[in-house]
Design goal:
By secondary structure, the chain is mainly alpha-helical. Helices cover 75% and strands 0% of the residues. It contains 21 helices and no strands.
Length: 412
């Protein structure tokens, strides 16, 4: 790529990142999907990418996975599950602090077993329903959901997309990987809980759980049983190693056939704005990656990583944390995977790469897909800005990464 295109790609990426990171600006009052779409159009309009390259850069597997899980979640909503579950939780919760802990543990454990993005997609509606019904503040619980999904997903090779790529490239056995990363994930969840409890101590102390006086609408048991059965089949397919995206979409399609409901009603519940946002963001990120900037950064900095395994692990960790936030974790892992065998202790570096690119997802709203799913799915009830998230994400990321790397090096 020539220099002019590199400059254009970097400028468009920075503009897009600025628009989707902050609140709406008076000059350009765009929400996140519209800002990403603008960046996508600019990449093609200024010749940084051709239309064909833009189409190829979209990760359709991610979009299909999201669509499938959105369809299943929509049918659960129509069955009355979220209102019923919110009512049950509020009647049995002891305190706002206990709710925070239970949510954090639930999200972390489920994300270790399944894809963190899927867990966030499933739980966000439930969390919003619980907090709105109980008149509780949304931000601490939404942050707990997103951050714990990222932290918990580090424990296994199926917890998030970048871990799946690392498992494929490194050939590290599933159990050996988890033996090293599970203690790291547990330590991370403990640190996250402490940071959120301290940071939101006044908000949680003043919060009062309002027990619902009016019972929720009755459940549609037939539809609920159908969604639970299909969801169990989808999860079984995930664990069996079937394609995540098409397994989820097959589940959504199966419910559409068996539910005997007007499909227009269901499709209206799908968050099409979120799908457009991701599709456009893939194109913008690929436009920047096509400049070769990630490889150039490594070429200039690799001599600074040091010679010993521990120094290389620490330096790669911080480099990966930065790179995964700038270029997105999955594209960064694909690039960084080419470098790992050049280091003194490749297996430690693979594990450090998994830790860094996963934990760094908590740095900002844009650090991981899970964060975006939570924030965008709840935007009808609360607006969480870039700094609203980062004031907690930055300390959580730094503390969990340091503690995690100390554990990894000690166990290596």
């Amino acid at each position: 790529m020539n220099t002019n295109k590199e400059i254009l790609a970097i400028a468009i990426f920075c503009l897009t990142y600025l628009l989707i990171s902050g609140r709406r600006l008076k000059i350009l009052p765009l929400n996140r999907p519209a800002a990403a779409l603008l960046g996508c159009v600019l990449m093609v309009g200024f010749g940084v990418m051709t239309p064909a390259q833009a189409y190829r850069s979209v990760d359709y597997d991610t979009l299909v996975l999201l669509l499938g899980m959105m369809l299943i979640a929509a049918y659960r909503s129509l069955a009355g599950f979220f209102d019923w579950a919110a009512d049950w939780i509020l009647r049995h919760a002891n305190s706002p602090q206990a709710l925070l802990l239970y949510l954090l543990l639930t999200s972390g454990v489920l994300s270790a077993l399944l894809v963190n993005d899927t867990i966030c997609l499933m739980l966000t509606q439930l969390v919003v329903a619980v907090m709105v019904r109980g008149k509780l503040p949304l931000p601490p619980y939404l942050l707990a959901l997103a951050m714990s999904a990222n932290l918990g997903s580090a424990a296994t090779l199926v917890g998030n997309p970048q871990n799946m790529i690392i498992g494929h490239l490194s050939r590290i056995p599933f159990l050996r990987f988890s033996a090293a990363l599970l203690p790291v994930a547990i330590a991370g969840l403990a640190i996250q809980y402490a940071v959120l409890r301290i940071g939101f101590r006044r908000v949680l102390a003043q919060a009062v759980i309002h027990r619902p006086e009016v019972p929720p609408p009755p459940l549609n048991y037939r539809l609920l049983i159908l969604t639970v059965a299909v969801l169990a089949l989808v999860f079984a397919g995930f664990l069996a190693g079937l394609d995540l995206s098409w397994t989820a979409l097959a589940g959504g399609a199966l419910i559409m056939v068996l539910a005997r409901r007007d499909t227009r009603e269901v499709l209206e519940l799908v968050d099409w704005h979120l799908l457009v946002f991701f599709a456009a963001l893939f194109i913008v990120v690929e436009g920047l990656s096509g400049t070769g900037l990630p490889d150039q950064m490594y070429g200039r900095l690799h001599h600074l990583f040091g010679a010993s395994a521990s120094s290389q692990a620490w330096n790669l960790t911080w480099f990966s944390a930065l790179g995964s936030n700038v270029f997105s974790n999955v594209p960064f892992v694909l690039v960084a995977g080419k470098w790992i065998n050049n280091f003194a202790h490749p297996e430690l570096m693979w594990k450090g790469l998994a830790l860094a690119t996963t934990f760094a997802g908590n740095l900002t709203i844009l650090g991981s897909v899970a964060n975006i799913i939570v924030v965008e799915s709840a935007r009808g009830h609360v607006e969480i800005g870039f700094w609203d998230y980062a004031r907690y994400g930055i300390p959580v990321t730094i503390l969990t990464t340091v503690a995690g790397m100390c554990l990894l090096i000690l166990m290596s």
